[in-house]
Amino acid sequence: MKILVIGFQRSGTTLLRRLIDLHPNVLWILHETRLLSKEGLTNVNVISRYIKNNISNAESYKFATILKKNWGEKLPWYGNGSNIIYYANKWSNIFRDESKIIHIVRHPIDVALSNVEKRDLIQQLLLNIIQIIFLV
After folding, report:
1. 15-37 mean pLDDT
2. Domain boundaries, the chain
3. Nearest 5°: phi and psi at 100?
4. What are the start-end ranges of the E strands in the chain?
């Protein structure tokens, strides 16, 4: 099975990737490599060759084993809709019956609030660091 996890940024794609990674029958879920976006990667044999030539020996060996087993990739969507649709179609066309695509949907207001909360948390952390450094 070849699993593609897609969804808008901050919608839970990373959490789902980590959870799927824990399953004993899944060897690896790639983290935002955009593997199929590489030029000329149009079938499993070409992907195997690309990995062998472009990834470190340890990773290459691991991936060569994985290509025959359950693995996948996590890819967030940053608003460029046609790219993610193209990528999902390519994934489906290359891996055919083995492909599984999981699309996470989170309410846009929750995504926006999550981004604001993250930004506010970073700002508060920086203020705390400044206060500690200058003993304000």
Report:
1. 82
2. 2-105, 107-136
3. -130, 130
4. 2-8, 28-31, 71-77, 99-104
